[in-house]
Amino acid sequence: NSYPLNLYPAPSEIKVLAQRRNEILTQLASVKEQQRQFTNAVAHELRSPLSLVYGYLQRSQKQSKTLTEAQKETLGMAIAEAERMTMILQDLIDLARAESIDVPISGEVIILNDFIRDIVSMTKKFEHRQIETELSAVRIRAQTNRDYLMQVLDHLISNAIKHSDLNTTIVIMLNQVRDAAIIQVRDHGSGISSSQQELVFEPFYRTDPSRARSTGGTGLGLAIAKTIAERMGGTITVDSHPGEGSTFTLILPAIGTRS
Ligand code: ADP
């Protein structure tokens, strides 16, 4: 035949290339682990001085009788920024924790229908939002860690709330296709352009940095959610149209196969 067989590496070369590839992957994993440990250490180190600064600012606010209006306003802004920094540090610690292979992520068998119902009733109580559910009539189960799953859904639902208007509805759906449990959070909010849909899962990426301050996010929520989902053997993707809304889809391995 006319295939240029000599273009393909010989079996002995393939073995060497595969070995080299494994070495590079191991090195990469080790660099990532060092980076994770460093971020975690920095975030922990910064927490104590920041909480002291926060305490001093609050103390000054309590003695605000002697302050002018302008000084009170500046103090208020400093406190808000200290709170924001505290949130960023906490999210960095959460991200490093989610990335750590030493932290076990598997857990108990959870009936996702009940789990989602509980989260929604809790969220409704605090947010007074129109949140609807479209849950499979059949029980869908996954073996996973409750706290981590709660974190993932909390990020997705609070994003849906943050990026849509008060009078719009947020829908949470649950289905199973073969061995995949599919949880979707759909909003009719601002939406995300197709060129930004991959980027929103990167740490600190915001579609509109000027709005980030007012919505109060850290830019780490989706990075944390995606890391946890992948550690659970699943994925998170987004489908969105600017001006129409977004649907975030979390896929987890389900227990028991359905067609
Ligand atoms: P943040 O703390 O800024 O919300 P996230 O990592 O959760 O950080 O989200 C990153 C960015 O993705 C947000 O700043 C926002 O621009 C965009 N985003 C996330 N969820 C939605 C959504 N439901 N609708 C529109 N934009 C979203």
Automatic annotation (TrEMBL):
GO terms for molecular function: phosphorelay sensor kinase activity. Signal peptide: none annotated. Keywords: Kinase, Membrane, Phosphoprotein, Transferase, Transmembrane, Transmembrane helix, Two-component regulatory system. It catalyses: ATP + protein L-histidine = ADP + protein N-phospho-L-histidine. Residues 41-256 form the Histidine kinase domain. It comes from the Bacteria. Its EC number is 2.7.13.3. Coiled coil: none annotated. This is histidine kinase. The chain holds residues 84 to 342 of 342 of the full protein.
